[in-house]
Write a structure and sequence with these properties.
The structure is a single chain. By secondary structure, the protein is α+β, with helices and mostly antiparallel strands. It is built from one helix and five strands; from the N terminus they run E-E-H-E-E-E. Helix content is 12%, strand content 28%. A five-stranded mixed beta sheet has the order 2-1-5-3-4, covered by helices on one side. Strand 3 and strand 4 form a beta hairpin. The chain is globular, with a radius of gyration of 17 Å. It comes from Elysia marginata.
Length: 98
């Protein structure tokens, strides 16, 4: 069992709280626990991503695969764009790509 620090900026104020969870659980379980906490605030109903160490946590992945430890800090942010790949622009003729 680990206590995780959660920092949410889904609305204009900063919400901080802690969640106790077994690190063998999936990210989806963590997301459900965070939703329970957020349902008591004005962030209710906003879809969000969870960030740790600069990466978005994937729902089906175990928390232990992200090397989380007790008192690690997670960040809750508004969901990023759901597009699978960013659009790439073709290089302009005559321009070097360096």
């Amino acid at each position: 069992m680990a206590t995780l620090n959660v920092c949410s900026r889904l609305n204009k104020t900063l919400d901080r709280f802690q969640i106790s969870l077994d690190l063998g659980n999936t990210v989806e379980t963590l997301k459900e626990e965070i939703k329970r906490k957020l349902d008591t605030t004005s962030s209710k109903g906003i879809d969000f991503d969870i960030l740790y160490a600069g990466q978005v946590l994937k729902p089906a992945t175990n928390l232990s695969s992200y090397l989380l430890q007790s008192h690690s800090t997670l960040y809750v942010v508004k969901k990023f764009s759901s597009s699978s790949k960013p659009q790439q622009q073709e290089p302009h003729p005559g321009k070097n790509i360096c």
